[in-house]
Design goal:
This protein is an alpha+beta fold. The protein has helices spanning 12-24, 36-40, 60-68, 84-93, 101-108, 110-119, 139-143, 171-184, 241-254, 286-294, 298-306, 384-396; strands spanning 2-7, 28-33, 51-54, 75-78, 130-133, 152-156, 166-168, 190-194, 199-207, 212-216, 218-222, 230-235, 259-268, 271-278, 322-326, 334-338, 343-347, 350-356, 363-364, 375-381, 401-403. α3 crosses α4 (84-93). The chain is globular and about 55 Å long.
Length: 404
């Protein structure tokens, strides 16, 4: 069977998750990408036997043309935030299982997501007040009549990884932040929305078109305001049933149900209010930990639903372990001059895996986003105190040096 995988830059989700899963399923894989050299340069055997072809994957018409002129597809798939609508349209063109392209568009476009949820029949207090600042329009003029309370959050309408997402406290600061973001992103639309106080969580789901399963979720610890860098994600098996139901109702309103979905929401005063919906599997190695926690072939199941198969009907056992991910990150600009290399350890029954995300000798500014991450510590253990102790001790015993 032939699978086409659409991608931009290489990611751990693809190289360590989906490509090995496709190999185990016996699939012939063709990666379509606008950066073929980057994929061909990935070391190890991740791309062994994988065909890599250049394609303008941001244009669904180019994807359809490339696939049509090559080999008949059995699945068209992507785990990229940026390519869900294009993938859905291409898969639908060939009559293959696919996400609804309209749902993919709604979740990628944060302004459209807010409009859709505001118009839906949801409980009072769930919808989030928001306003779009279209490209080329003056933020002061657009926001003059917007009913957005302070503090509020400004973000790119189609951004990812907390890039240029900033908390602001008053009107003048908001206008200044809009100008600052636009200086880096000319021609992009922005969204301004009310800040949601409370605890930040994720909900991971997987659907086959008929049934949607809740896989679980993480609690997210963020950096200090005004930025939103993810510092640690901890497995949280006990999410309130009412909160899960509220999140699922919001996903239903958006039309989300097929394939993997990673939803971020804030829990406050018993209400679950969606921050954003990423219509793909969770990333930054959380998906690798999730597969270990659930002890199921998660990546294979995700691919199988795109091949038209149903999810297993049997109940999934509750995870017997717990886990977390911790992300050391750069606080200052400069060159990374010292950092630990990859490690795999067993500490008092806790399995630890550390993987660098930035090479020594690399010089970078500070972005105040996940781009600043230096590495990821992935831990799986019998209980949360043991996992936390092992991760904290690992990070404390190692050094990451940034030289100005």
């Amino acid at each position: 069977m032939q699978m086409y995988l659409l991608a931009l830059n290489p990611t751990d989700s693809v190289t360590e998750g989906f490509l090995p899963a496709a190999r185990r399923l016996g699939l012939a894989v063709t990666v379509l990408t606008d950066t073929p050299a980057a994929h061909r340069a990935v070391g190890g055997d991740a791309y062994a036997g994988v065909e890599v072809l250049e394609c303008d994957v941001r244009d669904f018409r180019a994807v359809v043309s490339r696939v049509s002129a090559h080999r008949r597809p059995d699945a068209v798939f992507s785990n990229s935030d940026h390519l869900q609508a294009q993938t859905a349209l291409a898969a639908a063109y060939f009559g293959l299982p696919a996400k609804d392209w309209r749902a993919a568009l709604r979740t990628k476009d944060k302004a459209e997501m807010r409009r859709c949820l505001a118009a839906a029949d949801l409980p009072a207090g769930v919808a989030v007040r928001a306003a779009e600042v279209p490209a080329g329009q003056d933020p002061a003029t657009v926001l003059a009549s917007a009913d957005i309370p302070f503090p509020c959050v400004v973000k790119p309408r189609e951004g990812v990884a907390s890039e240029d997402v900033v908390l602001v406290g008053e009107h003048a600061e908001l206008i200044a932040r809009c100008a600052e973001i636009r200086s880096r992103r000319p021609g992009e639309a922005l969204v301004v929305e009310e800040f949601l106080p409370g605890t930040l969580h994720t909900l991971e789901t997987l659907g086959d078109g008929a049934v949607r399963r809740v896989l679980g979720g993480f609690r997210t610890r963020l950096s200090a305001p005004p930025y939103f860098i993810e510092e640690r994600l901890t497995w949280e098996p006990g999410l309130p049933a009412a909160a899960v139901a509220e999140v699922l109702a919001q996903l239903d309103a958006l039309g989300v149900g097929f394939g993997a979905c990673h939803t971020e929401f804030v829990l406050s005063d018993g209400r679950a209010r969606v921050v954003e919906v990423n219509y793909r599997a969770i990333g930054d190695q959380c998906d690798l930990l999730l597969a270990d926690l659930l002890a199921v072939p998660l990546f294979e199941w995700i691919l199988r639903v795109h091949l038209g198969e149903r999810l297993p009907a049997d109940p999934w056992p509750a995870p017997a372990a717990t886990g977390c991910l911790s992300y050391p990150y750069a606080r200052t600009p400069g060159t990374l001059t010292a950092a630990p290399g990859p490690e795999d350890l067993d500490v008092d029954g806790v399995r630890l895996a550390y993987r660098p995300l930035r090479a020594i000798g690399t010089r970078r500014p500070v972005h105040h986003t996940n781009r600043d991450l230096l590495g990821v510590v992935r831990a799986l253990g019998p209980d949360r105190p043991a996992v936390d102790r092992a991760v904290d001790a690992f990070v404390a015993a190692r050094t990451w040096e940034i030289t100005p």
